């Protein structure tokens, strides 16, 4: 009887050790997969920031040229439409936040508060820029053929307001990238 009990205990110990080893390997595998996902997500965020910053810089320069054109023609008889055409049209940056959305839907616990806060600030500012662009377009459509200095001054105000937000976001992108705030794990 003692031999059977001893045999069962040995078998139970072997099975228990096997289960513990399997759990340990599974945890290691999940940890490795989570780290790989995190690293790929970071690369996505970094690439998006580079693309967004480049697009935003181009649009910002174009809109500042448009603002100069508008301000140089405040008192003449040029229409709002003609001013926009002279400056090469009205451009809008395409700001993507897919990488941040991945974090928001999955595992953002790996990011420190300062990094997460800056990423959320970028997303918030990009939404604000979209809203300001919509307000600008809402102004431009009914005033396309306006030639009054008041209409041009309002266009200048809407455009300046949009440029201010775009410049702020552009600055955040640049400082974030140069500070290398994203941890490299």
Low-pLDDT runs of 5+ residues are 181-185
Mean pLDDT across residues: 86
Beta-strand residue fraction: under 5%
Query: What is the element string, with H for helices and E for strands?
Result: HHHHH
Strand segment tally: 0
What percent of residues adopt helix (DSSP H or I)? over 70%
Q: How many discrete structural domains?
A: 1
Helix and strand content put the structural class at mainly alpha
Largest sheet: none
Can you describe this structure?
With 185 residues, the protein is an all-alpha fold. It has one domain (47-179). 78% of the residues lie in helices and 0% in strands. The chain contains five helices and no strands. It is rod-shaped and about 110 Å long. Mean pLDDT is 86; it is low at 181-185.
Record the SSE blueprint.
Layout: H1 2-72, H2 80-86, H3 98-105, H4 113-140, H5 149-179
Helix pairs in contact: 1-3, 1-5, 4-5
